[in-house]
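Q: what does this look like with nicotinamide-adenine-dinucleotide bound?
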Amino acid sequence: MKILVNDGIDPTGKRLLEEAGFVVDTNKIAQADLATKLNDYVAICVRSATKVRAELIDQTPNLKAIARGGVGLDNIDVEHAQSKGIKVINTPAASSRSVAELVFSHLFTLARHIHTSNRRMPSEGNGSFNELKKAFSEGIELTGRTIGIIGIGRIGQETASIALGLGMDVIAVDPFIKSVNIPFGPKAHKATVTIETKSMDEMLAKADMISLHVPFLGKAVLGAEEFNKMKKGVLIVNASRGGTIDEDALINALNSGIVAGAGLDVFDNEPNPRQDLLSHAKISLSPHIGASTEEAQEKIGVELAEQLIAALK
Ligand code: NAD
């Protein structure tokens, strides 16, 4: 039985599939040629590049499973596939820890002005060393601070787990969840804390740092009204989706000093974020790399392989 891996897979995932007896073809087939070639395979593995639409599904009666490495299924006509008895698989949890760690990359960066040091030290040369040393002398520790987590799903919970390990207080906001148990700490010393969710207003009034972990549902979760309720000097991180923060309101809040710094992994207009965000001195930037770690890629590969083997055997 042949499986087409059209957008790449981690070598461990490929090995697991081969050990289970499948022939794994990693030679990419162009989108336009899939209609004539995909019927030679029992399953196709994709990321976001390859589209598996109803028309293609109708032309490939031999297909038994469609596997998507990652979260979103926008590139697959899921209901149509399922109506034909084709299993649709994805790996929504595999990258959660990596995204949560990126949140703390940004928070530690902002807390100690690393983003500004990295911009200014090369361009200003040694002459400004002592000036910058003085300017950045008021860094802060994360330990003992309160983090507000908006959306306490998979990634929100991993973010809470890291925060608890650092000795931070956690206030979670999630209209669909009442309480969650968050395990944290190393395997040998695991502890669990139960966190009851609170109202947005209570979180905004108390949080020193705020991280968003919600889907984009058509309108911003943080806009001018919310920024005006935050503690002065708050740090904000967005590693969820563009659109969940009103970017105009964020820039105003950074310029007025309500927000001391923001870490952004996602943007409204990807892959062309607006220039005033990219060049803002108080913003730490990353190009939508939340899930892009060796560990997440391996977990995605292994989870895909295990689910495919279960679905096809
Ligand atoms: P999830 O579905 O497990 O959790 C989302 C949570 O948000 C749910 O608990 C839901 O109840 C809650 N929620 C929905 N609307 C809300 C609102 N208005 N206020 C507060 N909470 C609300 O999703 P997840 O896997 O944790 O992913 C979270 C976000 O991270 C998604 O937008 C996802 O696309 C994004 N993501 C980003 C990257 C990256 O590379 N930066 C990688 C993976 C996922």
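The longest helix spans residues 294-312. The longest strand covers residues 179-184.
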